[in-house]
Design goal:
The chain is α+β, with helices and mostly antiparallel strands. It has one domain: tt1808, chain A, CATH 3.90.1570. It is built from 3 helices and 14 strands. A 6-stranded mixed sheet has the order 1-3-2-6-5-8, with helices on both faces. A 6-stranded mixed sheet has the order 4-7-9-10-11-12, with helices on both faces. A two-stranded antiparallel sheet has the order 13-14. The longest helix has 20 residues. The chain starts with a strand and ends in an 11-residue tail after the last strand. The mean pLDDT is 92.
């Protein structure tokens, strides 16, 4: 991540305009430009999205979003002080409020996935998880493509991290009842031959 010039007041209109040029988040009222990702990062995030979205749709659970949905977590009046953009996220149907769908989502996702890129520090990733939990997210996955592991954090037990490797089956019944994910499916690479 790189910092852009400090902006004293960022409104929703500013945030949307800034994201049209670069992917940015607001942290402590400051604009943070996110680094572009590599192909592996995109493949893994897309695999997870492809595993979750059809299941959520089939069972009418809610909305699974890709990595372009902005969540406004904190604001002071019209000024946004904290926004995040998870790589994959989920909002329960009952938690989608009435609002103008052209705007960023007002609040936190119920579930967030952060795929770790080589340019991202562990501190930056964990700060995102803390922000999600502080604003109501129930579960978050930190995905490590290079070692093919998923670390699962739960809001109700934040100090207990479950680590899943490619041989494991991952379940998250409170969010996606009955769904079983073979972790290796999250790391499938495209056939290039």
């Amino acid at each position: 991540m790189t910092d852009t010039p400090h902006i004293l007041t960022v409104t929703e209109a500013d945030l949307l305009r800034l994201n049209a040029e670069n992917t940015v988040e607001i942290v402590n009222g400051e604009v943070i430009t996110l680094s572009p990702t590599g192909f592996l990062h995109n493949i893994v995030a897309s695999n997870i999205y492809d595993l979750l979205r059809p299941y959520a749709k089939q069972h009418d659970l809610g909305y699974v979003a890709s990595d372009s949905l902005i969540y406004v977590l904190e604001r002071e009046g019209d000024r946004i002080t904290l926004s995040r953009i998870p790589d994959v996220s989920f909002i329960r149907k009952d938690n989608i409020p009435e609002f103008d769908f052209n705007r960023p989502f007002p609040g936190a996702p119920d579930f967030a996935v952060e795929v770790v890129s080589p340019s991202e520090s562990e501190q930056e990733t964990l700060a995102k998880i803390r922000d999600y939990f502080a604003h109501g997210t129930e579960e978050a996955w930190v995905v490590y493509p290079n070692i093919r592991e998923i670390h699962v954090y739960r809001h109700d037990d934040p100090k207990h991290i479950r680590v899943y490797d490619a041989q494991d089956i991952l379940t998250t019944d409170s969010l996606f009842p009955g769904l079983r994910i073979q972790v290796s499916d999250c790391f499938i690479l495209p056939n290039t031959k």
